[in-house]
Amino acid sequence: xxxxxxxxxLAALALPALAWADDTTTTTEHNAPVYGNTTYAYETGGPGLxxxxxxxxxxxxxxxxxxxxxxxxxxxxxxxxxSYNTTKDDINYDAHLHLxxxxxxxxxxxxxxxxxxxxxxxxxxxxxxxVAQPAPAYVINGHTYSTSVIGQLxxxxxxxxxxxxLGVGWNTLGSMEKGVGFEPGLGVVYQGSPKVSLQASxxxxxxxxxxxxxxxxxxxxxxxxxxYRYYPVVDLGLxxxx
Length: 242
Description:
- The protein is mostly beta strands.
- The protein has three helices and 16 strands.
- The strands form three sheets. An eight-stranded antiparallel beta barrel has the order 4-5-6-7-8-13-14-16. A three-stranded antiparallel beta sheet has the order 1-2-3, with no helix packed on it. A two-stranded antiparallel sheet has the order 10-11.
């Protein structure tokens, strides 16, 4: 329950915005709100759905237009397995990237048009599993250990539980129009310093120095991954507004 508190807090902050309007809002004889010098009919805006694909995976969204300047959006992103090979300190790994995130964002349309700025908060379940490819021996922290000592060598990388998002985008529907629109976006997620763990399934504890070398190797990998605090987001989507 505690893990949901930041998301609930963001949603709570968004609720007052649903009734927010520009200070110059007036009402015409047809009860249509006026923002600045532009009049918007009540039939525009409202709820919408969307699908998208990008560096966060494949996703779906529900959005709701609060007013010509603000859209509230709830996203879910997922991609099961991106497999790739990588080499770290002369050890070859089979790695698997799993993407899953969900959260809420506020899309601010500063000119009540197609351009938008997004601020969001996401539950970050992204992680990476890696397993060293079989080899007769492994060199760890400058020392050689046979496979009988190391066994299976594997690593796991996780990120901060909650990740803020900042980005910009372009929605061809603007903030109020109905129908089908195209929505590309660029942004960045702050995922914090990744947490790296390295494990060996063999009898490492029985070999003097092997456990310490594994810890040194783990810290070396941690230092390398500390450079990846920010995750770039490139996203292409289709939106449908009722």
